[in-house]
Amino acid sequence: MRITDASRRSRIGTHFVVDATLTYDAEAAVADDDVEKSVNYLLVYRTIQRVMDKPQHLIETVADHIVREIKREFPQVQKVTVKLCKLNPPLDGKTEYVAVQMEG
Length: 104
Fold this sequence. Notes:
It is elongated and about 55 Å long. It has helices spanning 9-12, 27-32, 41-52, 59-73, and strands at residues 2-5, 15-24, 77-87, 97-103. It is of the alpha+beta class. It has one domain (2-103): GTP cyclohydrolase I, C-terminal domain/NADPH-dependent 7-cyano-7-deazaguanine reductase, N-terminal domain (GTP Cyclohydrolase I, domain 2, 2-Layer Sandwich), CATH 3.30.1130.10. It has 4 helices and 4 strands, in the order βαβαααββ.
């Protein structure tokens, strides 16, 4: 799941991209072709969006909170990996992005 959050630019002066990889046992969902037995990606998106809406100083903090909230709200998820990219950071020279990756 990749989320590009351009709406934050007007509030904090930058864009972010969030890549979230969720590991869970999808065997029952696949066997029955049943979305109710799967992880609802719309709800995952809303969780990420809610965390992104809270002001933080460090992208590490934000990425960690995303991991923790996904694990808390979706107990069937065994592992979450989040890569949070801050696009065009205010650094000397041209830098496309800086990123952190957190797992839990």
